[in-house]
Design a protein that fits this description.
By secondary structure, this protein is α+β, with helices and mostly antiparallel strands. Among the domains are: 35 residues; 72 residues, OB fold (Dihydrolipoamide Acetyltransferase, E2P) (Beta Barrel), CATH 2.40.50. Helices cover 17% and strands 22% of the residues. It is built from one helix and nine strands. Strands 3-2-1-5-6-4 form a six-stranded mixed sheet, with no helix packed on it. A hairpin with a 6-residue loop joins strand 1 and strand 2. The longest helix has 34 residues. The mean pLDDT is 85.
Amino acid sequence: MRQAIEGLVREMLTPYLERIETLSHELEDLRRRNRSLIRLGQVAAIHENGYLIKVKHGDLTTPFIRWFASSAGETRDYRCPSIGEQTLVLNYGAGDNGSQTVALTGLFSDNFPSPSGDPNEILRVYPDGSRINYHAQNHVLTVDIKGDVHINVDKSAHIVAGDVATVDAKSIALNGGSPCVTTAHICHFTGNPHGDGSSTVTAGK
């Protein structure tokens, strides 16, 4: 009699036990997916097209995925992440193969620490050491470029300085014209320096 009752109970409970086991597997799968939703990693590779990267997080590496840019509409910015740059991997599809993940870059790390600790500075440092720095408290913009600078303007260009404008270079060429004469030049007729010079514009000889 007891065995019959136990058999009947097992038969009645079997669907519930199977359902509990299924729910347990589903719950574990959800936990695993949740753990992979946001992962901290480092850029491991850059695609040859220049706009996809692989990110290594733990023992895993994503396929080539996109990264966040500050602007990606009609106004667009481009700055390819660096190998070793720290990034957050956002798995918005909660999948296993990484095909529905994107990388959120721009996290300082031991590989690439912050270039400044001054909250008044707005600073960009380039790989060759060039820097563009605006200090909000001092109201000073400093541009330090290690190479050449090219500025092309399709129409007019206006530069207005409220105080002194200083240009200091080994040579200055304006429109490919002839050299300018200043009061530092010697007059061929008198043998003396030119006496009539501008009171607002000065230039070296």
